[in-house]
Fold this protein.
Amino acid sequence: MKFLLVAESRDGKLCDVSHELLAFAAEAGAEYAYFQVGSEESLPCCDATLYLADRERYGEYSPDLHKELILAAVEWEQPDAVVFMHSSYGWDLAPRVAVALQAAQVSEVVAINDGEYEVGCCNGKMRRSVKPTTPRVVLTLQSGAFNQKEVSGGTPQIVPLEIEKAGGQIDFIGYEEAEKKSVDLTRADIVVSAGRGVGKKENVPLIADLARALGGELGGSRPVVDAGWLDHSHQVGTTGQVVSPKLYMACGISGAIQHVAGMKRSEFVVAINKDRDAPIGEIADVLVVADVMQFVPALIARIGQQA
Amino acid sequence: MKILVCIKQVPDMESRFKVNAAGDWYDQSDLAFRMNEYDEYAVEQAVQLKEQLGGEPEITVVSIGPERVGEPLRKALAMGCDRGVHIHDADSSRKDPWQIASLLAAFAREGSYDVIFTGMQSQDRGSAQVGMILAELLGLPSVTTIVGFSYEDGQVTVRRELEGGARSVVRVPLPALFTCQLGLNQPRYPTLPNIMKAKKKEILLVKEGDFALTEGRALTSRLFRPEKKGRGLVLEGDVAEQSQRLVEILKIKTAVFR
Ligand SMILES: Cc1cc2nc3c(=O)[nH]c(=O)nc-3n(C[C@H](O)[C@H](O)[C@H](O)COP(=O)(O)OP(=O)(O)OC[C@H]3O[C@@H](n4cnc5c(N)ncnc54)[C@H](O)[C@@H]3O)c2cc1C
């Protein structure tokens, strides 16, 4: 079995995903080659062929061109699978490549099992085993699902890749960095986060009171930020901040993968959720099954009695 | 201008899911269904574009599924879409993203739409493929995960969300397709007068069998509940007792009260 692993770069730097792609190839027992639109200054460590297209020439977000480049590498390499990370780069490009190759795509793979791919569904509450019916497949991997501690060294053998540059229709104008954080949650010892389960904006101050009672910072899940109940500098998760406090309290948060990715390195996790089956229970050291609006005032009162 | 919005109906994610008799999907009885969250942003963006252009564009909203799919279609009409199309398919949950997108493409090809909005993914299946495959099948440029949209003189400028909250700014000519991310806008709640008005709007019913069907490429062989690996303690009971126990645990396990 042979894989084409698609590495990513942003702003000229290789993104830190190659060990996950490698771990996946190792688990599948597959040979592999790499593909990257990047530069020689920033290459993945590996003993493999690397199809390298020049970032200056093909841009970092120019999906029509990147698709053509990947198809050219596929033509050379004839892989059984083209493997992306399930990232903003991967989920954008993978379906384009899959359609061109008339291949099945399986998104956000978390495990492989006898030629089938396991993926999460229903916010992680259920799993599906997916069986592709096409000879070739396109896969995206859930970030964090495959991991390899020791990064194998080596220098790739570079094969420069060029295509007739048919002008893409999508015009990349530039990056906008995330706004400056007025709250730095990454240094906090205690983070207490409000999720959609708090119900309404007027209830957020109660969670802030709990954070204060514990001497911690207030965080939030994405819907709370999207609804304007908290500003973005409080958001925890893949598109917010990644925190690793000594204590993390998730109040009315279901535990979606993108949220968990931002807090799973916390030392001790307490979740308050009325749903005993909420996926946050998988990562919580303590799951309090309760209505957050009833439990939190009781907890604040108890904390007050400790002084 | 003609705008198309593709929406899906999904169960409430707080439901308790059970595996169906065939073992390949969740049992659909006893579930509360709603419009896929991502699609609400798609509907809202279409309506905002229509408003920006003085009401000229016509918005069609389409959904594939069984009888109950009429509900989210009505909601989209109440939010401001002009006409609904229900592609009736009692077994749509068995179709993979390729089949769903092929069906949508067969329908959309006849409409020559200038702008197509979809959600970036569904909350239940979460493949993040249907919109993109649809764009490829129609030969349209497409951009995923938009969190900002502006239209001027036939050109669209969007913000794509990247990891860590960064964005890229991208310009695309029309016709084009966009997949919408949470937070793109603030989806409106339908008002009572608009709900009444929506009742008079047309929902065209077509059958999936009216279109050429395709073979699936990535079929679900099994749906199952993941093994619980969490070894966490579950505290049930009344809040007085729960809060007391939690404080005791925090005293032992953390330095909070030291
Ligand atoms: C590309 C991408 C990036 C994303 N980035 C992020 C990110 O950075 N951060 C992030 O958080 N999300 C992110 N998301 C969104 C993520 O998928 C989830 O939608 C989100 O995390 C859900 O937030 P939530 O848990 O607050 O809400 P929900 O999923 O709606 O969960 C609410 C929870 O509250 C519980 N609840 C309801 N009422 C009560 C009550 N009265 N008492 C107690 N519990 C109650 C419910 O049982 C439920 O478990 C991203 C999604 C995508 C696709």
Notes: The mean pLDDT of chain A is 93.
